[in-house]
Amino acid sequence: MGKYGVLIVDDSAFMRRAITLLFEADPDFFIAGIARNGREAIDKIQRLKPDLVTMDVEMPEMDGITALANIMEHHPVPVVMLSVQTDDGTEATIRALQLGAVDFFLKDRLVHEPDRSAVVLDFLERVKSAAGAKISRPGSAMPVVSEPKKKPEAVRARTADLLVIGCSTGGPSALQSILPRFPKDFPIPVIVVQHMPPGFTKPLADRFNNLCELDISEAQDGDILKAGTAYVAPAGFQTILERKADGSIQLRIRSDLAPNALYKPSIDVLLTSAAPLFGDRLITAILTGMGVDGTAGCRDVKNLKGRVIAEAEESCVVYGMPKSVFEAGLTDRQVTLSQIYANLVDLAFE
């Protein structure tokens, strides 16, 4: 018997069999059960208590999003969504991530990708990370203990000109606890680097734009940084910053940079370009995520007197990127997710 018991939820017999074969080839997993729709999934999670659930998005009787909301509320367990890259599938996946799904994977990659060996290795690595993720009920995060007492833009001197937030696995849910707290007149631009496949960052930005007071959009090449705006770095490209002749800072979206980088977008690539431009007026927050992206960039930030906040292990879905930054000695503060916004504001205003 393997280490992690998996419940596979999909209405397609072909997909259930294909996913089963992937897990059976890895000794760290065993199949705890299968379910054909969300209603069966809820029942079997209660009875079988799996360590991990793979959940199809579109199913009869009860779809994956409805089931996920119920699971996160009543029987929290790590869930990885399996989706299709259509407009409806992408929107549903973004919703699932904000509801608490740990990660997602595109079905087409598992079934049709030419180099399936690399895809399968990537899939198994990510689901192993997901299986060890910390899952809690919505609203159970630690309370905020250090909210600013006054409106910072009205009564405190600004000491930062740019905020960068970097995240990966578990990021969309974490961002949902931070971005809606910024007021519409927040006087500092924000850039978000969230690891995602191409096609998913624009729906993510659009969804947050509907939830938040900030103007939030997927970054476009040539965008000029401005206050009251959050820019989501587009997937499939690298995002960097450049100073124009008039002194303004523009975003450049490049396909020819860092071809060997593991992530597109990469937090390291953005921070390496931002640190020389902003120096001690740059603040970076590294949130939940697998891997070490952000560590090299934070080193550049610290070398030029910028400041770094890392999410504490207690609230991370996956304590990978923040741990790397913290253990490298690059953090000014390490706090739980519920305290990230207050500490960003505290560092950004005297």
From TrEMBL:
Its EC number is 3.1.1.61, 3.5.1.44. It is found in: Cytoplasm. The modification 4-aspartylphosphate is found at D56. SMART domains: REC. It is an enzyme of class 3 (hydrolase). Residues 156-345 form the CheB-type methylesterase domain. This is Protein-glutamate methylesterase/protein-glutamine glutaminase.
